[in-house]
């Protein structure tokens, strides 16, 4: 893995990649739309709240919240220097002085004081955290949250959606298998992610109260507006992952090339159907 300012990362893709930045910009927009806004599920919002977004990527969620709540201070952290540089430029361009960004490795102790934030948010940490890193991260979230503060974690049930494309489904299973072999997520057999199953209990065991889940779905069938966004996401995602899939031994280069070609053809069929499922888990620090 490539060395970064804050140590060795465990993100399955190159966090400094321009292609990954473009993919995340698109994915952030689609996700926020699917969830009904950047703060869906958050009912109580203190005045002048301090908010932290973990693994913020190019900063879209931070900027959305900062724009909607100019009285609040919203901070995003990410391992990628390129992502943080870009997020800072976006904040200046949009004149959002209440949005700040810092390079930080979320698998290490966070550079914030105890009880600093009213809300800690994160989306899609699965590709960035090894299985054993989840509990230390929850402990750090607990440390930096104020009493009564909210932890809000959003993860996909099915990482790339469920579709009628046989090639896409095969590639997705390969991805789950690679995650399992490399020590990510919580599947018992390598055919699921298992994250959304485990997170509510882990949060309760970490002392959070009123833990509850919020489900989100988004259709991206051929006749839906979201199809193009998901098609682009799948193109970039599966073009970046061959090194990870090959390293874990779940596929050969020839298999990946054939499946990739078949997937693109099947996605472009007028009968293509797809659905994406997400779960947000929320809990209050005691």
From TrEMBL:
Transmembrane segments: none annotated. Residues 51-149 form the Methyltransferase domain. Keywords: Methyltransferase, Transferase. The keyword NAD does not apply. One of its GO terms (biological process) is methylation. The keyword Transferase applies. SUPFAM superfamilies: S-adenosyl-L-methionine-dependent methyltransferases. One of its GO terms (molecular function) is methyltransferase activity. It comes from the Bacteria. This is Class I SAM-dependent methyltransferase. The lineage of its organism: Bacteria, Bacillati, Chloroflexota, Ktedonobacteria, Ktedonobacterales.
């Amino acid at each position: 893995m490539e060395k970064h300012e804050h140590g060795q990362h465990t993100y399955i893709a190159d966090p400094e990649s321009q292609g990954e930045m473009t993919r995340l910009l698109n994915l952030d927009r689609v996700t926020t739309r699917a969830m009904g806004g950047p703060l869906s599920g958050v009912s109580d919002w203190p005045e002048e709240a301090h908010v932290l977004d973990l693994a913020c990527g190019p900063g879209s969620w931070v900027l959305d919240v900062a724009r909607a709540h100019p009285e609040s201070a919203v901070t995003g952290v990410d391992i990628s220097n390129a992502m943080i540089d870009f997020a800072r430029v976006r904040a200046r361009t949009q004149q959002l002085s209440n949005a700040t960004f810092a390079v930080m490795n979320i698998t290490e102790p966070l550079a914030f004081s105890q009880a600093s934030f009213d809300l800690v948010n994160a989306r899609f940490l699965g590709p960035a955290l090894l299985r054993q890193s989840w509990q230390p991260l929850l402990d750090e979230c607990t440390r930096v949250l104020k009493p009564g503060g909210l932890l809000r974690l959003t993860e996909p049930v099915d990482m790339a959606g469920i579709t009628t494309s046989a090639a896409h489904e095969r590639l997705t299973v390969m991805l789950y298998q690679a995650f399992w072999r490399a020590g990510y997520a919580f599947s018992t057999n390598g055919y699921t992610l298992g994250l959304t199953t485990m997170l509510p209990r882990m949060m309760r065991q970490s002392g959070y109260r009123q833990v509850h889940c919020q489900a989100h779905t988004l259709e991206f069938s051929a006749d839906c507006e979201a199809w193009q966004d998901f098609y682009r996401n799948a193109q970039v995602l599966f073009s970046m992952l061959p090194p990870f899939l090959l390293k874990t031994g779940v596929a050969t280069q020839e298999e990946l090339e054939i499946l990739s070609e078949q997937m693109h053809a099947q996605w472009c069929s007028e009968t293509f159907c797809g659905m994406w499922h997400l779960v947000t888990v929320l809990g209050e620090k005691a």
